[in-house]
Design goal:
With about 150 residues, this protein is mainly α. The chain has one domain. The mean pLDDT is about 90.
Length: about 150
């Protein structure tokens, strides 16, 4: 899902949460919104790691090109390729945030933002007929990738 959609979904749901639960406060609502959008920073980190380039403009161009290529590919063919490792989109990261939330309330609101983001991602993956696992478990994705082929443009 493109960042524009995450931005729109994040702002709508953050405003709804603030409206329903005003005691949460503006700052915590802002944390929810920002975490619902900026969780995708791991996509940029993956680009930096793979391409050895930090240009956000080249990252955006590369992302759009890759998305278009994958959309043209039938779901059965897409399943044969290795899946990207999105370190902020996986349960292992959420568990870490959950543990941190016992010490700092800030992380509860980060987790809520991530939940908003992930539900949107999972709906998008189901719509595209892609597997949910690679945006759920890092360990499972690594195990899956042992038998997959590399996608050349990624």
């Amino acid at each position: 899902m493109l960042p524009k959609k995450h931005f729109i979904i994040g702002i709508i749901l953050s405003v709804a949460i603030y409206t329903i639960f005003p005691f949460i406060g503006f700052f915590n609502t802002l944390i929810i919104f920002l975490s619902s959008v900026f969780i995708d920073f791991d996509h940029y980190l993956l680009y930096i790691f793979r391409k050895k380039n930090i240009s956000p403009f080249r990252f955006w161009s590369w992302s759009i090109k890759t998305i278009k290529m994958l959309k043209k590919m039938p779901p059965a063919k897409r399943k044969k390729f290795k899946k990207p490792l999105f370190i902020f989109h996986v349960i292992e990261f959420w568990i870490l945030l959950g543990v941190l939330s016992f010490f700092w309330n800030f992380f509860i609101f980060v987790l809520l933002g991530i939940a908003i983001h992930m539900i949107a991602d999972w709906v998008d993956l189901c719509h595209r007929k892609d597997p949910l696992f690679y945006k759920f478990s890092l360990l499972y994705t690594i195990a899956f990738n042992r038998k997959g082929k590399n996608l050349i443009s990624l």
